[in-house]
Amino acid sequence: MNLLTNLFSPSKENKKTVEKKQPIRLPRTKKDRKGIHIKSSEEITIMRQSSLIVATVLKEIEEIVKPGMTTGDLDDYAEQRIREMGGEPSFKGYYGFPGSICASINHEVVHGIPSNKKRIRRGDVLKVDTGAYYQGFHGDSCITIAVDKVSPKTAHLIRVAEEALYAGISQVKAGNYLLDIAGAIEDVVKKSDYSVVEDYIGHGVGKNLHEDPPVFNYRTTEVPKIKLKAGMTLAIEPIVNQGSKLTRTLRDRWTVVTVDNALSAQFEHTVLVTETGYEILTDRSTLS
Fold first, then answer.
1. How would you class 98 by CB atoms within 10 Å of its CB: exposed for 0-12, middle for 13-18, buried for 19 or more?
2. Is the dihedral of CA 206, 207, 212, 218 positive or negative?
3. CATH fit for domain 3-20+37-280, picks 1.20.1290.10, 3.90.230.10, 3.40.800.10, 2.60.120.280
4. Using CA atoms, how far apart are residues 159 and 164, in angstroms rounded to an integer?
5. Separation CA 65–CA 120 (nearest Å)
6. Which H or E run contains 145?
């Protein structure tokens, strides 16, 4: 299974059909995706801006979301704000995906299609993932929002997912390996007796929304033995389930859910590898 492609694509049987109906609008050819692109200082400057757009949109969504809104409302807001800041929504039209955000609620794991019929309720676990394309480069990030009050057990799941992300990020620096990131994430999740979703992983990001290298969230022999180098940009994105790690895809061929209907949480940042550590390009904490 090609995990890199599987991270953001419809089910295999529908992929060709969707691509014919809605061709990919931005320059993301398979040829471009091969190999790891070390970004120049000029390219990093652009990626800071594309990532700032993403961080701003997610921070604003976190502030405005409330029960009664629909995921379609959030999608409209995200697209408008991305374009106001000079970007294009990375997700819209990508393999035919119809939205500017992925909005996944409760047991929905990833790739939830935003809809004016999908109403957000108090106590929901809402995952909002979005990307922005700016002057040739993408930024990509995801947050999990506890809508109003959630149970302590649910709050713990969300907290562990975020801690797992930052544990992985803490291993980012020139000279470390992708396996260091994967192991740090897995250790945090296993300590809490949750499971790491293995069907979907992180990735390189830059000129293309999904690039090499694949960024795993768990230890496996499939993790490439790649040493991190300054100038690499990675989208690190652990997905954590309360129950089984197994998932299935709904009939819309996009929305992925847990097989046991257990809750799922996800966090993601676009991260720059530096000589001494890392820079979180989609950091929301510095925004006013």
1. middle
2. positive
3. 3.90.230.10
4. 9
5. 8
6. strand 137-146
Closest CA to 267 of 189, 166, 188: 166
Residue 142's beta-bridge partner residues? 129, 268
Residue 86: CB atoms within 10 Å: 12
DSSP letter at 174?
A: T
For 1-37, write each residue's pLDDT tens digit: 234 445 555 544 333 333 333 333 333 333 344 689 9
Which are the contacts of 159, defined by CB distance < 8 A and separation ≥ 6? none
CA dist 239 and 252 (Å) reads: 21
The token pair that represents 72 in the structure block: 């379609």
Ordered by start, the domain boundaries in the chain are 3-20+37-280
The model's pTM? 0.90
* DSSP-derived secondary structure letter, 254: S
Whether residue 107 contacts residue 22, with contact meaning beta carbons closer than 8 Å, is answered with no
Quickly tell me which residue has 């057990």 as its tokens: 153
User: How is residue 19 written in tokens?
Assistant: 């691509």
pLDDT of residue 11: 47
Cross-strand bridge partners of residue 280? 271
- The tokens of 115 are what? 């809809």
- Helix (H) or strand (E) holding 286, with range, is none
pLDDT one-digit tens code per residue, 115-172: 999 999 999 999 999 999 999 999 999 999 999 999 999 999 999 999 999 999 999 9
Report how many helices (DSSP H) and strands (DSSP E) the chain contains, helices first.
Answer: 7, 15
